[in-house]
Amino acid sequence: MREDEVDQVVRDVRGDTAPMTGESFTANREKVLALAAAGRPAGRPTRRWWGVAAGVAVLAAGGVLAQVVLGGPTPATAEAAQALTRAADAITTTDPVLGPGQYRYAISRGRSAVRASQGGQDFRWLGEEVLEVWLPAVEGEEYLVRPRDTGRRDWLVGTEEQARSAGLDLRPAQQNEIRGRCDRPCQEDPGAWQQPNARFLAGLPRAPEALLERLLADGRGRGSSDHQEALVLASDLLRSGKVPADLRAAVFRALALLPGLEVVDQSANLDGRRGVALAVTDGDDRQEVIVDPATGEFIGDRRVLTESDGSLPAGTVVQSGSVTTAVVDGIGVRP
C-alpha cells in the first residue's frame, strides 16, 4: 500500500462515523498499516490530486483525471516496449532464499502533494513519509512495520517561514511501529494489487497478454483512463517489495503491450537512482514508472503535471514513490 494513501483509507473506512480524535485516528491508521504488511486489503480510496493538512496529520492522496480517447488508444511505442523487454530479460536470477531467522526488508519513500489554507493564504508542498517493513520467510511468523513522517517538505506554493507565520501546524505526525502475525484468516485472504500476499501473487498469470488483461480488468472503473489505471496497479504491486523475480519479468513484458505507454525520460532521477521513465498521459497529468533496463530493477513511480495547475507549471512532480529491498539477518535489522 502506498504510504500516502494510508491516512485517507482510515478516513474513508470510517466515513459514516463522527469525526475522529487524534488518538483514534492514529490507532486506526496503525491497523491499516498492519493489514497492508500482512497482505490484507484495507480498501482503496478514490485518487485525488491534493491531500489536506489537518492538525498534525498529513492526509495525502494522488489523483486520476479524466481521459477522452479519440480514435482509440495508440499502442506502446517501440522505444517503451524495448526498454521493458530489456528490463525483463535482465531478470535472470531467482530471488534469494531466506535462511533461518532472516527477513525480507523493504524501505519505501513516498512524497505526495499536500494543500492547506491558513490566514487567507494558500500553501502547497510535497510531504514525505518513509515506511520500513520486515517480512518473515514463513507468512505466519512475526512481521514489523515502521512508518515515519520525516517532516521534509518541498515547497511548491509558499515557504516554510510564511506557513509558520500564518499559524499553520507543521509538526510531523506521530507514528508507532506495528508488530503482528498473519494468522490463518489473513493467509486465506485473496489479497490485492496494493496489498499482495502469497495467495494473490501465486494467482497472477505469468503470460504477458493474460497479465495485461487482468491489469486492465481490475483497473476498469477505478478511473476514467483504463490504461493509466493499469499502470498504477502495476506500480502498486511492484512497490510492495514482495514480487518474485518471475512475476516482475512478467509485469514488465505485460506493460510493454500497454496502449499509450511511451518513454518520457531516458535518465530519470528518483531519490538518487536513475532509470528510464515510461508513462501513460491522461489529460493534464501522466503516470510514470521508472525502471533500470540494465538490471531489471523497479526504481519507483511518480505523477507529473503535463499542463499548468494554477500556480504550478507543467512538469511539476506532485507524487512519487521509490522502493529498495534486501535480505537482513533479523527483524528490525537494517542492511
Structural overview:
The structure is a single chain. The chain has 335 residues and is of the alpha+beta class. It is built from nine helices and eleven strands. Strands 1, 2, 3, 4, 5, 6, 7, 8, 9, 10 and 11 form an eleven-stranded mixed sheet that branches. A hairpin with a 2-residue loop joins strand 3 (103-118) and strand 4 (121-136). Helix 1 packs across helix 2 (22-38), helix 7 packs across helix 8 (226-239) and helix 7 (208-219) packs across helix 9. Mean pLDDT is 81; it is low at 1-32, 34-49 and 54-72.
How do the helices and strands line up, and which of them pair or pack?
Layout (H helix, E strand, L loop, with lengths): L2 H11 L8 H17 L12 E4 L2 E3 L18 H13 L12 E16 L2 E16 L5 E16 L2 H6 L12 E4 L2 H4 L10 H6 L4 H12 L6 H14 L5 H11 L6 E9 L2 E10 L2 E8 L4 E9 L11 E12 L7
Parallel strand pairs: 1-3
Antiparallel strand pairs: 1-2, 3-4, 3-11, 4-5, 5-6, 7-8, 8-9, 9-10, 10-11
